[in-house]
Amino acid sequence: IPEIRTGKAVISPRRRFGIDGRMARIYPRFAFAALTAALLAFGAGVPRPATAQITNVSQVMELEVLPGWRRADGVHVAGLRITLKPGWKTYWRAAGAAGISPQMNWRGSDNMHSVTPMWPTPQVFRQGGSLSIGFDRDFILPLLIAPRDAGPIRLNGVLDVGVCADICLPARLSVAAVLEPSSSVDRRIEAALADRPRRLRAAARCQLRPTADGMSVTGQIDVPRQGTSETVVFEVPDPTIWVTDADTVRQGDRITGVADMLVMGEGELSVDRSDILITVIGDRGAVEVMGCTG
Q1: Which of 85, 92, 200, 234 could be disulfide-bonded to 133 (CB atoms 3.0-4.6 Å)?
Q2: How many helices (H) and strands (E) does the chain have?
Q3: How many CB atoms sit inside 10 A of residue 154's CB?
Q4: Whole-model pTM above 0.85?
């Protein structure tokens, strides 16, 4: 099966691949139930002991708003402090096949133009043939909030997350706070910002190939080793695209990840190489590269 490059091409009589520059569009034959697959991957073969007596997520997870400060450029830096009971974990923005990716809704807020979560470096947990990516310790999630004016921000939102031990509990957390335009920097939030994956300008090449159910991506990234155990994670901005766990191989200064992309629903699968975020997570840190070439 040929690699998707530029120009137009018809790959098979059952499926049309229209190519426009770095953009590859795929019309899949059937929908892919990504959330169901994630829950089944986590639950397969996992015992359900006495932790099932947990009836309220506050017994295992707590959230506190750190009001933060207003930067000179007008952006407000706040934080969500997540406290976990020992033995429990929650998940990173890309949770892996055995995890549950968090969802955030800030539509109830006032004086807010946009909010950008700045996720700290996570851990990788392996469960049989699948993996999950997240945190089994307390952490702070910084938020960069662009207000509409210079006044206070009324933060009002909902976080839907998964919190897991021997069982998984879906958690809906309400967030409410007034963020005054203070200039007093919170060093805890600063430390969490410094703990993010380092953004590198590194050589990255992505091969996109059609598959029976979507598209495969093979990324070759020239980045320093991040430890003895490394994982490549591909992310795209379209929330309807499910990206599977990547098979990862390191050879010298180059790491290669291979994953599949599948669309949830009957829409087209559209991927622009310049929008692919590639993160390499290891036991000694993480780096990320924005975009790749063909």
Answers
A1: 92
A2: 2, 23
A3: 14
A4: no
